[in-house]
Here is the input.
Amino acid sequence: MGEFAGLVHNENIKIYSRVRTWIMLFILAVMSALMPALVYFTSDSVSSLMGLWESFQMAVSIAFFLNTIFTVVVASDSVAGEFSWGTIKLLLIRPWSRSKILLSKYISVILFSLLSLVVLVAFGLGSSYLFSSSAAGLLPETNGWSPAQYAFMDLLCRYVELFLTTALAFMVSSVFRASGLAIGLSMFIMFAKSIFIMIFNPDRFEWARYLLFTHMDLRGYLVSNAGPGDSTLGFSIAVLAIYYVLFLAVTWYVFSKRDVAA
Amino acid sequence: MSNMAEQLEPVARLQGLTKKIGSKTLVSDLTLDIPTGQIFGFLGPNGAGKTTTIRMMVGLISISRGDIRICGYSIKDHFEEAVANVGAIVENPEMYKFLTGYQNLRQYARMVSGVTKQRIDEVVALVGLGQRIHDKVKTYSLGMRQRLGVAQALLHRPKLLILDEPTNGLDPQGIRELRDYLRRLCREEGTTVFVSSHLLSEMELMCDSVAIIQNGRLVDVKQLKQVGDAVIADEETLFEVDNAEAALALLGLGALKNGGLAVEATREEIAELNARLVAGGIKVYSIHALSRSLEDQFLEMTGGEGIG
Here is the structure.
């Protein structure tokens, strides 16, 4: 038997040998760098210039959508792609259990999400550094966080959201073997989430406290101790963890049991 | 086949293999030993359950009842150990089109231990892909993808090579080459080859034995004798005579066929029988060998039934 690291290496090759992946990373880098620059060149007075962290946060708030979308694309193709290419038949007849093959795929997707996060931060922060004004007033502290700490906590919360959306896309892609469906559904949830929270307001409906959407955005806890429907941070994390385990359990079960006849 | 090969444990044993999907039984109680060191054909009309059986042998689909043992390991309970002895192409060899042929082979080499760079080069040379191995697979013809498919199946020197309809889409020269290197593989590396097809003529040229399957059931297993290039399963001799019934009565053996008398006999016996017929006053116009080809037998056994 070979090494498990070899399996992850294989999956990485499948991701990074495709031109598509590099185009996505390029777009992400450009968008991250572009936002601070645009604001800088369109401001007409020194007083409207932004400080470093303010500028960075704005870049993140826009570019992070791309980060999520691109990671979902990679996650959706990871399993569904093998089925549509027909290569799944050659992949599953190796001396490796299906669980390990699936794990190697999942790890490669998470590695991609981290890489794209690094790209976003590097280009966003670099550009913010170049195109911000030290003349602009420093942001006040938020709930005891310094602007830098706040910016990174904000990033962490967004990553949690990406992490769950990715798990969902990975599940849909494994269960339905259709990457289009997985991408579409994940995007829908990403954008419809806030509408759902509005309709099924956890303050009005007790059961809405147990929905995934209600807790995906943890950023509220950065400024307040009470979350949606008076939840605590611990409760929100517990709900997210349960959904996460559920998604992965379904993915593993279906992938391991499936008859591959395509 | 040498006697030694016959004494070896069968490389694969299918034991009461059954596959049901809903109320449909695709493969029914199939028991078959695949002897070590042979090219073993798996013959049957379309829809007979060949690909379903092969999918079960490599663990792509679950087994409803029965088991498959490869080199002693059950594919159900010890999948990893069992499948480590198998190299396979199931249906068309689909590869990662955005990678080169070589990169594709590296993918599969990483999944097993002990496949060196040298081994990859060796396999590439065996299937004759040459320098094209460094081109992207999307530029390959079907024949080249078949070769790459065989190459990935052979990388880890499997004891059992399973090929599902390997000649599909190959031109006559490609088929000829495939046949030659399967023979070489069998002879030089002792690999057992299990090859499915619905084409009889192909099986006749390639295989040492064939199992015939129809409607998910095993119909027969036949040894094929190689006589020159043609394969003769059973030989009969036909005497064309003026009065076949009288000839039958005189000799007391054989059967009436095509207006003549068909008998199973050796060369010497034929001369003797001829002498007796002539002495008995029967006119013999011609004597010729009636070889029943595998095709006749196949159609006879499967009764020319439609896909059920």
User: Anything to note?
Assistant: Residues 7 and 36 of chain B are 9 Å apart (CA to CA). Chain B is about 35% helix and 30% strand.
